[in-house]
Design goal:
The protein is of the alpha/beta class and 277 residues long. It has a single domain, classed as 4-Layer Sandwich (Purple Acid Phosphatase, chain A, domain 2), CATH 3.60.21. It is 21% helix and 23% strand. The protein contains six helices and 13 strands. Strands 4-5-6-7-9-8 form a six-stranded mixed beta sheet, with helices on one face. A five-stranded mixed beta sheet has the order 3-2-1-12-13, with no helix packed on it. α4 links the parallel β5 and β6. α1 packs parallel to α2, α2 crosses α3 and α4 packs parallel to α6. The longest helix is centred in the N-terminal third of the chain and has 15 residues. The protein starts with a strand and ends in a 27-residue tail after the last strand. Bound molecules: fe (ii) ion. Fe (ii) ion binds next to loops.
Length: 277
C-alpha cells in the first residue's frame, strides 16, 4: 500500500497571499508532482490546518485545487480550521456521531484512525472526553489489525517551548487511552509543527513534515515568538509493508541540478575511478 502525507496547506481566499507566500501556487505544484509520480497511491492524507483563517472562500479555493488530485483524499482539521465551513465545502468527508471530523477506515495495511483535535479559537489542541471515548471504542474494535493514527496536534512536547505551548492539552489522558494499544499502533502521523520531525513516543514511531506555505525555523533559543522561514514545502511518500513502514519526504520544489551519480556534471574529483586511487 502507498500513501501520500501532506500537511498544513493554510489556504487563504483565491488571489490572496500569506506572509508573502502563495499556498495555492505551492499546492498546485505539489498536486502536479503527485499526479505525475504517484497517481497510483491508495490514499492522500492532509493532517489539518487546511486553511489559515477558516473562511468559506479559503475552503472553496482549497477544494478547487484538491479536485485535481488523483489519489483518494482524506482530510483532517487543525486549529486554524472551522468545522462548519469545512463540512459545507467537503460534505463527503466523514464525521463521527458527535459531529467531530474524525473517522476510522480499514485498509489493507490496517485500521487508519483520523482524529479531530480542533477547538475553535485556540491554537493548542483539545481531545475531550467524548472524542477519547470514540477513540477507545475504535481502538478496541480494531481487533488484531495494525493501527495507524493521524491527527493535527502532537500529543506530547517536542522540546521547543514556543511549539510545546500549543501542543495537545490533554496529553496525559490521551496517552492513557493509547497505552494499552501502543504495541499494535505502527505509526502516528501529525501536522502543526511546520518542519520535519520524527521519533518515538510510548514505543510508537511518529513523523511530520513542512507545511505548504511558511515553515518553523529550528531555533532552540527562541522562547516566545515562533521563528519562521520559507524553507521549501514537502510531501511524503509512505510505503506500507507487512514488516515495515518506509517514509520518503520529498522537497518537490527543489531547484538544484539533477544528475546521474555515474556522470558528474563537472570535471572534478568525482571523475576519479577506483583504479586511479
Ligand atoms: Fe499550521
Amino acid at each position: 500500500m502507498k500513501m501520500i502525507h501532506l500537511t498544513d496547506t493554510h489556504f487563504v481566499p483565491k488571489g490572496k497571499t500569506l506572509y508573502g507566500g502563495d499556498p495555492r501556487a505551492n499546492l498546485e505544484r505539489c498536486i502536479q508532482d503527485i499526479n505525475t509520480n504517484h497517481a497510483d497511491a491508495d490514499l492522500c492524507v492532509v493532517t489539518g490546518d487546511l486553511t489559515h483563517w477558516g473562511e468559506a472562500k479559503a475552503f472553496a479555493s482549497l477544494k478547487e485545487c484538491l479536485d485535481e488530485l488523483k489519489p483518494p483524499l482524506q482530510l483532517l482539521v487543525g486549529n486554524h480550521d472551522a468545522r462548519s465551513a469545512f463540512s459545507k465545502c467537503f460534505p463527503d468527508q466523514p464525521v463521527d456521531e458527535n459531529g467531530f471530523i474524525q473517522s476510522s477506515r480499514d485498509y489493507p495495511a490496517g485500521r487508519f484512525l483520523f482524529l479531530d483535535s480542533n477547538k475553535s479559537g485556540q491554537a493548542a489542541g483539545v481531545y475531550c472526553d467524548t472524542r477519547q471515548a470514540w477513540l477507545e471504542r475504535e481502538l478496541k474494535e480494531a481487533g488484531d489489525r495494525p493501527i495507524y493514527l493521524f491527527m493535527h496536534h502532537p500529543p506530547f512536547h517536542i522540546g521547543l517551548p514556543y511549539l510545546d505551548r500549543i501542543a495537545l492539552v490533554q496529553r496525559e489522558e490521551f496517552a492513557d487511552v493509547i497505552r494499552p494499544y501502543a504495541s499494535q499502533i505502527r505509526h502516528l502521523f501529525f501536522g502543526h509543527i511546520h518542519r520535519p520531525l520524527s521519533g518515538n513516543w510510548l514505543g510508537i514511531s511518529f513523523s511530520t513534515l513542512r507545511s505548504m506555505n511558511h515553515q518553523v525555523w529550528l531555533d532552540f533559543n527562541a522562547k516566545k515568538d515562533i521563528p519562521a522561514s520559507f524553507e521549501p514545502p514537502a510531501y511524503a511518500v509512505v510505503l506500507f509493508y507487512p514488516d515495515r513502514l518506509v517514509i520518503h519526504p520529498h522537497d518537490f520544489m527543489d531547484t538544484s541540478q539533477k544528475f546521474s551519480l555515474s556522470k558528474s556534471p563537472v570535471n572534478d574529483w568525482a571523475k576519479r575511478s577506483w583504479w586511479s586511487r
